[in-house]
Amino acid sequence: MPTIIAQIKSAAERVRNETHALYLAGRDPRTPWVAKVVIGLVVAYALSPIDLIPDFIPVLGYLDDLLLLPLGIYLALKLIPAAVLADARHAAHQASFNLSASRAAAVVIILLWMISMTVGGVLVLRYFDAV
User: Residue 131, exposed/middle/buried by CB under 10 A (0-12, 13-18, 19+)?
Assistant: First the structure.
């Protein structure tokens, strides 16, 4: 009987493979634009070091990772044509791509979050100055 740790590692590996397949499907010209938008959001959230609910909050911190990411993946998978998804899964399985080692993607995502927070902060400050 597999241990809980082994099951969690296996589930994490499946999520990683599906995320990579989503990334590949999102780049395929046969994928509808709505699916590409959902895929972009899911992959960005999966790669983002910033969560909706910070991980240091007990129990709730991991709730967004356990619910939002699988739901986003499920929705994106339903929007992708079957042939495109099969090709993307095959390519993801063949590749030795490591999402966590992609430093360039991490830097871009961190910069986007920082810019978003700065713009949001400026807008909030302007609002309260106007009041």
Answer: exposed
pLDDT in tens, the chain (131 residues): 568 878 877 777 777 788 788 888 999 999 999 999 998 888 777 777 776 667 677 777 777 777 888 888 889 889 999 999 999 988 887 775 454 556 677 777 788 888 988 998 898 888 888 76
52-72: buried (b, 16+ CB within 10 Å) or exposed (e) per residue? Answer: eeeeeeeeeeeebbeebbeeb
Residue 103: exposure state from Cβ atoms within 10 A (0-12, 13-18, ≥19): exposed
One-letter amino acid identity for 71?
A: L
Taking CA atoms, 82 is separated from 3, 24, 76, 77, 105, in Å, by 33, 14, 12, 9, 27
In one-letter notation, the amino acid at residue 34 is V
The span from the CA of 6 to the CA of 118, in Å, is 41
**Secondary structure element (H or E) that encloses residue 51, with its range:** none
